[in-house]
Write the structure tokens for this entry.
Amino acid sequence: MKPRISVLTLGVDDLERAVRFYRDGLGLPTPGIVGTEFEHGAVAFFDLQAGVKLAVWNRQDLAHEAKVPLAPPSSGEFTIGHNVGSIEEVDAVMEQARAAGAIITDPAHHTFWGGYSGHFLDPDGHLWEVVWNPAWEIADES
């Protein structure tokens, strides 16, 4: 398998709430909810970087499509890492997430490994880490 992750799909309980959080609260670009003409098809895609997309899809529809049982959500299974170029950017994104309705689980702080990070939960309990790593150069794609 070649390392080509192009879409990260999050199962959500309320698709419209998720769109408001990511589009209006965090400012991620999206054309909005598409696929409503299909049973189990309503989804929203957000453009990230270099062709990577974040998708939000109703949890029940995702389980139906993947043919897996719908299980209770768990925040401790993985984290979505958002790397930024400075300590100040970590603080700014954490505040933006809080203002959008995120629950701050781990306020931004200096880490044991020399970086700076914090964690928040989106409205559906997905865990995000906002992090500055002094060993990584973040290209500004604006």
Observations:
- Residues 2 and 74 are 28 Å apart (CA to CA).
- Strands lie at 7-12, 33-34, 43-47, 53-58, 79-84, 103-110, 116-121, 127-132.
- The chain is about 25% helix and 30% strand.
